[in-house]
Amino acid sequence: MKYNFDQIVDRRSINSMKWNVAENELPLWVADMDFDTAPEIKAAVMERAQLGAYGYAETNGAWEQAYCNWWKNRYNFEISPEWLVFSTGVVPTISSTVRKITTPGENVLLLTPTYNIFYNSILNNGRNPVECQLKYSGESYEIDFEDLEEKLQNKQTSLMILCNPQNPVGKIWQKAELARIGELCAKNNVVVLSDEIHCDITEPGKLYVPFASVNETCRNNCIMAVAPTKTFNLAGLGTAAVVVPNENLRHKVWRGLNTDECGEPNAFAVQAVVSAFSKGKDWLEELREYVWQNRRLVEKFVESEIPCIKAIKSDATYLVWLDVSKTGLDGNDFAEKLRSETGLVLSEGNQYGKGGESFVRMNLATSKTVVEDALSRLKKFCSGF
Fold this sequence. Notes:
The structure is a single chain. The chain folds into 2 domains: 26-38 and 281-382, Aspartate Aminotransferase, domain 1 (Alpha-Beta Complex), CATH 3.90.1150.10; 43-279, Aspartate Aminotransferase, domain 2. The protein is built from 13 helices and 15 strands. The protein has 385 residues and is of the alpha/beta class. The two termini are 40 Å apart. The chain has a 7-stranded mixed β-sheet, with helices on both faces. It has a 4-stranded antiparallel β-sheet with strand order 11-12-15-14. The model has no long low-confidence stretch (mean pLDDT 97).
């Protein structure tokens, strides 16, 4: 491989949220990577840093073209430059959109289990989360469309936040599924906010479907939040974009982001994006292969060595969803005891809403040796069940 993903980057000394743990603890919880980003991106950021003047910045044509080219070349989806709005992050976009598109006391629909911060964006702004629980077969997840349609028909429901692909279960939604979501939402006057931050981290040979690319109905009733930050480990740079084909919706999103003062790039946000999308493809392809080697390692090890838990097979994200129901513990208790007894820090499934109560989530975007250490600790802990 051209890039060395086996190299361990010491993140304990750089104020890392993920690695701000005790010396003996191994954190595989927060969804960022332990890898060095692509050297081409580092070079662009360092070149900008060398200039030394870090004043106010703005986007430019190169920033817009970088997004347009990436989605056209990779996903065969043509984005018009005028559809793009800068944002400092996907989460700020979600919170701002909740405030702008809905009113206090209205409902925001979620497919659960789902990214826990969606709940913060809803509850902190005085809105009500409505959960449509995915159907879990013991092997995989499907949408309960009867339940979804019933909940969309509630006149108090004005927004649906979709996770595409789904975090934490790693599901890539197929075109037909997205089309049906789009049809039901449009029929019931519910706007779709699609969080597509995990879209590039898919199993080699598989690609996700952008929600706005499905058909005209989806395109005219959606707000797509996208970013290179999960893909290239750039979350700390605060750079994202919102894709809004509908002009009226786009104006509302733009006004919301600027009212909330999260619509202006920092000194490095534009250069990092342009470099990532124009020069990062080779790095990404090797990253995906490395992450999936880690995933296969975890799946095989858990199946053969830890029979009391189950690794759910998935198509996307660098996260693995572990069913711990056979241990008799819920996700909170399992994660708490695991950390206390072995130092391995995983995310408890309860925080992801209905359907997550008997699960924990593990981050695989780290070196193979770290994953092996985690599996050893997990096996030791589970030997008592």
